[in-house]
Amino acid sequence: MKIGILSRGPNLYSTRRLVEAARERGHDVEVLDTLHCYMNINSLEPVVHYQGRELKDFDAIIPRIGASITFYGAAVLRQFEMMGVYPLNESVAISRSRDKLRAMQLMSRKGIGMPVTGFAHSPDDIPDLIDLVGGAPLVIKLLEGTQGIGVVLAETRKAAESVIEAFMGLKTNIMVQEYIKEAGGADIRCFVVGDKVVASMKRQAPEGEFRSNLHRGGTAAVIRITPEERATAVRAAKTMGLNVAGVDILRSNHGPVVMEVNSSPGIQGIEEATSIDVASKIIQFIEKNARVNHTRTRGKG
Prior knowledge:
The chain contains 9 helices and 16 strands. By secondary structure, the chain is an alpha+beta fold. The protein has a 5-stranded antiparallel β-sheet, sandwiched between helices. A 4-stranded parallel β-sheet has the order 2-1-6-7, sandwiched between helices.
């Protein structure tokens, strides 16, 4: 099987591990810099070009598209889909999960547990917006933020009003969420492949911090999750339409709540914490499912 990996960093741990796992299982694999791909968009024969040549004969594409290049990366992936190449995660699903507000609305429609979330445009609505999520303390998030950047814990009502006003003054889109105090600065990353959670880890925020992201100094440890948490993670990934996802869950007093569904989850933290060969499980999923034109959306949307 010929597999392409859309990644800007061939030396990144996740990309390297996927290359190693694919080659160990006898596949031909090539890493493609997403921003160096360019497209011939026509109705007869859609083509992707790379370094002066046409990219042909790929059986599957693994998208490792960073948040900062979501628009262009989704366009490149969509072109591969139009060529009949099997995508590990489809372009529509990636775009859906990257829009935090849209993702929350979709999960809400499916009845998936999540923090009470508010969204508004006008500064006149701030007092009621704060009340909607249960008052302070509360969490304010930039819709475009990643890896814990643009996430603020407002411990008092006055602080919440000031931060929300500041963000609105900058014309940035934010959402406001209830603060799950009982989680104690910890969350659970569930790594979903297909219809299974293949690995899970607990991420604990450092002292004085509420964000548990490993990039922000959080620590990771293996954890046993409950059947309800497992089912919640799988349902959240399916709601986004993702075959592979990192689903971040908090343990609240009213059950597991989903904080985010990541379409390009890092492999390093969870492999090191659990000693599970996640990369090989991804390649095995591709082996079972990759077929020509086996794309639900066929490049639409």
